[in-house]
Amino acid sequence: MTPLSLLLSLFPATVIGGAAAFFMLFVTSGSPAFVVAGLLLLYGVPPVAFKVHNHFHPLREGPSHLVGDKYSSWWGGHQIQLIYIAFPFLEEALRIVPGLFSAWLRLWGSRIGQRVYWTPRFHLGDRSLLDIGDEVVMGYDAGMSGHLVKRTRKNILLYVKRIEIGDRAFIGAGARIGPGVVIGPDAEIEGGSVLYPRTHVKAREKYAPRATAP
Description:
Blueprint: H1 3-8, H2 11-29, H3 33-43, H4 45-56, E1 62-65, H5 73-86, H6 89-92, H7 100-108, E2 111-112, E3 117-118, E4 123-124, E5 130-132, E6 137-138, E7 143-144, E8 147-151, E9 156-160, E10 163-165, E11 170-171, E12 176-177, E13 182-183, E14 188-189, E15 194-195, E16 200-201, E17 206-207
Parallel strand pairs: 2-5, 3-6, 4-7, 5-10, 6-11, 7-12, 10-13, 11-14, 12-15, 13-16, 14-17
Antiparallel strand pairs: 1-9, 8-9
Helix pairs in contact: 2-3, 2-5, 4-5
């Protein structure tokens, strides 16, 4: 682990600890300024930190290794996003307001179309690796990840690839979508489907569940 990797591994605890401190200051003082500071720390600092990090250490798509002397830009970015994975209610709150969660993902670098509907308990591993068209529906408990980690004989393999979903596609409840998946316009992904890395679903195709890896 490089020094920068170690430093960024402390980022989630630092943000959560700081937010908790602001909350305690609000309880003791009653000043709403501490609430605003806490919200800015939770929702403002991480995306800004991610953009700064990505400027100096751009995220590279494709395969790489996590173990070694070379710094992994994905690892650093993942640590910055970790609080939303560990505490999903932080993003659940954003989905209450129509359009707010889409705007949130654009802030991280994803391309999100208009009138995308996000249902509750949507799981997301990589906030900068989505390319979603207009009027897409995300089913309840669906999940997407723009990365895959797999142990090999001598190292840990990381594969990173943007997910692309065309206009008016329908993602069924509980579907799981991996890195590099491309879903065409008007396609329907049935509930419980598992789309493995680099799966391509044609326009207007109906994709049925798959229980096991090929």
